[in-house]
Design a protein that fits this description.
single chain, mainly beta, Neuraminidase, Jelly Rolls, 2 domains, six-stranded antiparallel β-sheet, 34 strands, about 0% helix, about 45% strand
């Protein structure tokens, strides 16, 4: 499967363009960002100001990675990322290390930037958190103000703008409870300078998710999290009430073991999920595409580098046409001594602009669309129990797999109804299909039905228990799409 990604033709006219080899032998053109003497660059964040300028914020230093010579820097591009100019130091502290800038732009154009300060190098993450803000497209900054004075308990992982009321939503880590992330809200009037908690731990099953990146797709809020501390198991959660309560979505099984630095963001037609992977002799950035945030198609490789590498965050620089600005440092071995540059690696910080064409993606994606701990005797699941399956243009085949565990004394099994809708709201009175799942007392049964070239707009399934005495346990319906 592949994703059509092309760089702008104007790159060929620039003298500062370099090439990075991709797996298939082709090259990705990249533009270096000159960091001067700041060689211990690590994490960056990119935002587009209201005047069209792009700001790249990072923490960097000229000495050892664990020294106090780590400060917050800014770089500006006025030509959509084709060239960059240093803006200078946004924050520094000669006795403390400053790290992890996270930024966003409010509905009225204010740029909010939060960053952490370590009391002592190597002691842990963000023992104090500050916020600075700019009302003139990043040319001048006010603050800092402490996170505690704004009503925040710790470091901020990500911000997102609510598309309905223009409030800001953030995922904030509670330093008193380790890595637990909570959801906070700042109204349009508060403009990022006052926050109210609206939700407890995003992932109650895990006491230390390492990442929590937010994005809206329509009214639904999605969050990409690392689900277990000390592992690379990640997942997507969603909320239909702006982060007050969360539900698990599901995805292709291999998504459960992706590498770190995950980021989810919106592009025309859906969502992109970017992440990095490490291999013995190279590192690479890959990503997935989903039209609805539930079915994720592996879109392929974005960048491949000849050695292991550190990579920063990524951000959409123009949400209107889907261009993506990817910024990434290529300097230090993430598994080794951060004072040493990797031999034969590209050294510096680079940016590349990508044009995304979701229609070029091919492959398969699976999602759990219905899950019930138990179905009582002679009971059916409802339409509300099932996640809708949207069959956009390009879907060539659909399969529905239903499984459940029968009681040893059961005498009848499960039945399935497949329902269709022309708009995802009004459901046909005639079922598209009905079938019975194989039956075996005391057994867990799993059965699949295929629907090639289906013409429906949206599908759901309902599952019923035909037994009049015994319940069926652990019932699940999984849908797989091919395009």
């Amino acid at each position: 499967m592949s994703l059509l990604i092309s760089c702008s033709k104007v790159y060929e006219l620039l003298g500062n363009v370099q090439n990075i080899l991709k797996t298939d032998g082709s090259v990705r053109r990249v533009i270096p960002i000159d960091t001067g003497k700041n060689k211990s660059y690590y994490v960056g964040e990119t935002v587009r100001a209201f005047n069209g300028d792009i700001l790249h914020l990072c923490h960097a230093g000229s000495t050892h990675y664990q020294s106090n010579d780590i400060k917050i820097l800014a770089y500006r591009s006025v030509d959509d990322g084709l060239s960059w100019k240093a803006e200078g130091i946004l924050a520094e502290d000669p006795t403390h290390q400053l790290r992890n800038p996270v930024a966003t732009v409010t509905a009225n154009g204010r740029i909010i930037m939060s960053y952490g300060r370590l009391q002592n190098p190597g002691e842990g993450w963000d023992s104090e958190q500050y916020i600075k803000y700019s009302d003139d497209h990043g040319h001048s900054w006010q603050g800092p103000v402490t996170r505690s004075s704004l009503g925040l308990p710790g470091s901020i992982a990500s911000y997102v703008l609510n598309p309905v009321d223009s409030s800001l939503i953030c995922a904030c880590r509670d330093l008193s409870t380790g890595y637990q992330y909570h959801v906070y809200r700042s109204t349009m009037a508060e403009n990022g300078l006052s926050w109210t908690k609206i939700s407890d731990n995003i992932t109650p099953e895990s006491n230390s998710p390492a990442e929590a990146f937010l994005e809206y797709l329509g009214p639904r809020l999605f969050c990409c999290v690392r689900l277990e501390a000390g592992t690379n198991k990640v997942g997507i959660l969603y909320s239909d009430n702006d982060g007050i309560t969360w539900s698990n979505t599901s995805y292709h099984p291999e998504l459960q073991q992706l590498a770190g630095w995950n980021r989810i963001f919106r592009v025309p037609g859906g969502l992109i999920w970017m992440f990095r992977e490490y291999h013995e002799r190279h590192g690479q950035i890959n990503y997935y595409y989903s039209r609805d945030g539930h079915f994720w198609f592996r879109a392929g490789e974005l960048l491949r580098l000849p050695t292991s590498f550190d990579s920063g965050y990524w951000d959409v620089v123009d949400r209107m046409d889907g261009r993506i600005l990817a910024t990434f440092p290529v300097e230090h071995d993430p598994f080794g001594d951060r004072t040493q540059t990797v031999e034969n690696s590209l050294s510096g910080v680079y940016a590349t602009i990508l044009n995304v064409d979701p229609t070029a993606i091919r492959g398969k994606a699976s999602s759990i669309i219905l899950s019930k701990n138990s179905i009582a005797p002679e009971e059916w699941t409802t339409l509300d129990d099932c996640m809708p399956v949207s069959l956009e243009e390009g879907i060539t085949n659909l399969t529905v797999t239903v499984e459940g565990t029968y009681n040893a004394d059961a005498t009848s099994g499960l039945a399935v109804r497949v329902l269709s809708s022309y708009d995802g709201v009004n459901w046909d009175t005639q079922d598209l299909d009905t079938w019975d799942v194989d039956f075996g007392p005391g057994l867990t049964i799993r059965q699949t039905r295929s629907y090639p070239n289906i013409a429906a707009h949206t599908l759901k399934v309902a599952v019923g228990n035909l037994d009049n005495i015994q319940a069926v346990e652990n019932v699940k319906a999984v849908c797989s799409l091919s395009r």
